Amino acid sequence: MTLTTRMRRATVPAVLAAGALAMAGCAGAGGGGGGTGDGGDGPVELTLATVNNPQMKDMEELKGEFEESHPDITVNFVQMEENDLRDAVTKDIATGGGQYDIVTIGSYEVPIWAENEWLADLTEPLSSDAEYDVDDLFAPVKDVVSVDDRLYAVPFYGESSMLMYNEEILDEAGITLSENPTWDEVAEAAREVHSDDVTGICLRGKPGWGELFAPLTTVVQTFGGTWFDADWNAHVNDPEFREAVQFYVDLVEDAGPADPVSTGFTECLNTMTQGKAAMWVDATVAAGMLEDPEASEVAGKMGYAHAPVKETEESGWLWSWNLAIPQTTQNQDAAIEFVKWATSKEYHQLVGEELGWTRVPPGARQSTYEIPEYVEAAESFAPITQDIMLAVNPTQPGLYEQSWTGIQYVTIPEFQDLGNQVSQDLSDVFAGRSELGPVLDRGQQLAQEAGDAQ
Amino acid sequence: MTTGRRGLAISRALLWPALIVAILLTQIPLVATLYYSFQEWNLLRPGQRGFVGFDNYVKVLSDGSFLSSLGNTVVVTGSAVVGATLLGLLFAVLLDRKFLGQSVARTLMITPFLVMPAAAALIWKWSILDFTYGMANWGLSLVGLPPVAWNTDLPAATVIMVLIWQYTPFAMLILLAGLQSQSREVLEAASVDGAGPLRTFTSMTLPHLRQYVEITVLLATILLLQVFDPVAIMTNGTGGSKTLSYLLYERAFIGLEVGEAAAYGVMTVIVTIIVATVALRTLFKVFSEEGLMNR
User: Fold this and answer.
1) Which residue, among A140, A89, A142, A143, has the nearest Cα to A119 in the 3D structure?
2) Chain A residue closest in CA terms to B148
């Protein structure tokens, strides 16, 4: 794909000569953004590339409201699956394609892209508008999308991770958990309630830096380990890292999902909603789905707590989907208008009134958690979500000082590859095909190569 | 004569545009891939792009993942092709007789091949191989066997299973055509000569099917070398299921290493050409010798 994009640009005359068909196919997707004018006068057509999460679909549903108040701007949505989006947008921006005026990107990419000068600096346009109230955005989320205190993206919704448990199952076993449990307590409880019918604790085992290593990195950090220290020395085969992974693997083996390598967020969500698992440590946004009586058998039966800890105070991760504006856009002013609208307080009101209060994008604005209707609709999980979102510390989540901002990932380009490879090797450990020691030794080697590139 | 020659020239001239398109479309990607394979280029590090000679190739050959992926590809493709051909032969023989509902049975047998690969992989992942709700473990429980964590414990086998399921109809169709092209008179003569069904099958039918088996193996190997969907959807390249095409995908789209991925691509093409010329030729020789002996 990359190759063809580059090729297309290099060989346009040739392709033109050879056949208009091929050209039409290539250019089709990009027609929206490029051509239209200098932002301001005349109608502007914006192309927005976004991940196809429910919250983004809601945004598309409501874009008519924006177009009504901004009659000279129309917004076209291009929805993609998460990995496709990452590929498409990375290639478009890295190769200077300029198809998109607005993109949704994850918090992992923001600092990397900002360093590459691919993203427009949004600090000025957002902070100059008092009504927009940029300080209302959750500070930790704002931190992960900033580089040197300059804001390069705006969080559309954010999440941390927490412990979600089925109160019925735990009550039956006579177990109560505090709001700040430790991993040892949680592991003991999981082993106690685990049976053939009920999974003690659902934990991800599916390979991938964003699947297995999202929860596992937080475990490593709270056990006192890290991927890298502040000088980019890798610490993957350190005792702390090893102890944490061993703990995780053992817990999955004793009380986790039976087919861990198949298990990711979606799989755990299914197991949980059917009442087949007692506990689950995962994204806070899952709570909204567990409490949806139409899709979940456990709505109203759930309890929530901070993510389990060992050596640290807090162990939640931090992730946000953000709206950013590529430098390549021709319509920056219009794009900023839309980004402001979609992340404003009014937008949250609009979603609540038009689509229902449980569908308001969570974890972006603190003021959302003061809207009475929202607090009422999400009373079982909104307060604790807000609590966790404010408590996590993306500048130093573990015991090590780090030279990047982020919790369950390292904001270097090599990290997705590194996390992916190590997590694949760990599936062999889950299956008993490999020992943990050699796997982490190889992980250390890969990590050190990545660290040396910094 | 002259009009003939002029006609020939005109016909040739008319061919040129199509030929040029064909050359452009097939050769430019190859040349571009070659070019990129000599570049150091991580998409997320636009500042560090540059010519690096054979560094990428050195990386490909010194890193263990190319060889292990090659091995995985051979195992996965080989087992799937053999499995699909054997099963296809069995079903083709069974379908090559008259019975009530024959055409319905044939259509039903073909359906797995008509399902899109990604959809098939999803069906297998969720409805058949899911640990708790999957039909496979339900079937095992009926005969008193413990459930299997397919993707965790047997990743390569799950991929092979899906591929056999999907490509058996393909083999069956070709082999069925072979069976139906067999002359009834020859078979009749064999039975007059006192050959039983088994003897007829091994001495008459199998040699006749030789070229059909060859074409099945050849086409199935080519198709299965590119297999990607079940690996990406079901196993994510774990435990011996990381085939060359998945490795390529990882280097290009997870590693974002354009240069390295291009080098992997070039190496894959070279290896495929070697395999195609050496292995397939040897294979066919075995078949033709058998055929000659029986003739």
Assistant:
1) A89
2) A259
* DSSP collapsed to 3 states, A180-226: CCEHHHHHHHHHHHCCCCCEEEECCCCCCCCCCHHHHHHHHHHCCCC
| Contact: B150, A87; criterion CB under 8 Å | no
Q: Which residue of B has its CA nearest to A6?
A: B32
Residue A432 in this model has a pLDDT that exceeds 80: yes
**Interface residue of B238, B242, B247, B258 to substitute, partner A, most A CBs within 10 Å:** B238
What is the interface pTM, i.e. ipTM, of the complex?
0.81
Domain boundaries, chain A: 1-30, 35-159+320-377, 161-317+391-452
- Residue-wise pLDDT for A366-410, tens only, equals 999 999 999 998 888 999 999 999 999 999 999 999 999 999 999
Chain centre distance of CA A210: 8
- Asked if the Cβ–Cβ distance from A3 to B236 is below 8 Å, we say no
pLDDT at A143: 92
CA distance B86 to chain A (A): 30
The CA distance from A393 to B135, in Å, is: 45
State whether CATH 1.10.3720.10 applies to domain B63-117+146-294. yes
Test mutation, A2, A5, A105, A441, chain B, max B CBs within 10 A: A2
In chain A, the residue whose alpha carbon lies closest to the alpha carbon of B242 is A424
Name the residue among A14, A91, A259 with its Cβ closest to that of B24.
A14
Assess if CATH 3.30.9.10 describes domain A161-317+391-452: no
- Residue partners of B97: CB distance under 8 A and separation at least 6: none
pLDDT number for residue B288: 64
Pick the residue with more confidence: A1 or B173?
B173
- The angle, 0 to 180 degrees and rounded to 10, between the axes of the packed helices B155-180 and B206-225 is 140
Report the distance separating Cα A5 and Cα A9, nearest Å: 7
| Contact indicator for A107, A318 with CB cutoff of 8 Å | yes
Q: Which residues of chain B have pLDDT under 50?
A: 1, 292-295
**A288 band by pLDDT with thresholds 50, 70 and 90:** confident
**Is the pLDDT at A21 greater than 70, yes or no?**
no
At B165, the amino acid letter reads W
CATH dotted code for A35-159+320-377:
3.40.190.10
Nearest chain A residue to B64, by CA? A442
pLDDT digits (tens, 9 = 90+) for A321-339: 999 999 988 899 999 999 9
Taking CA atoms, what residue in A is nearest to B158?
Answer: A262
Same fold, A35-159+320-377 and A161-317+391-452: yes
Q: Do B46 and A206 touch (CB under 8 A)?
A: no
Contact of A420 with A209, CB cutoff 8 Å: yes
CB contact under 8 A, B239 and A433: yes
The overall average pLDDT reported for chain A is 88
Residue A259 to chain B, least CA–CA distance (Å): 5
User: Per-residue confidence at A191, pLDDT binned at 50, 70, 90?
Assistant: very high
- Exposed e or buried b per residue across A372-390, where buried means at least 16 C-beta atoms within 10 angstroms of its C-beta: eebeebbebbbebbbbbbe
Between CA A46 and CA A138 the distance in angstroms is: 27
Which amino acid does the sequence have at A94?
A: A
Is the pLDDT reported for residue A344 higher than 50? yes
Across the interface, which of B44, B149, B238 has its CB nearest the CB of A424? B238
Entry pTM: 0.84
Residue B290 confidence (pLDDT)? 55
- Beta-carbon separation of A15 and B131 below 8 A: no
Q: For a pLDDT cut of 70, what percent of chain A falls above it?
A: 91
Res A4 pLDDT > 50: no
Interface probe with B: pick from A261, A263, A414, most Cβ of B within 10 Å: A261
Instruction: For chain B, give every domain's residue range.
Output: 63-117+146-294
What pLDDT is stored for residue A9 in this prediction? Answer: 39
Residues of chain A with Cβ-Cβ distance to B45 below 8 Å are 116, 413
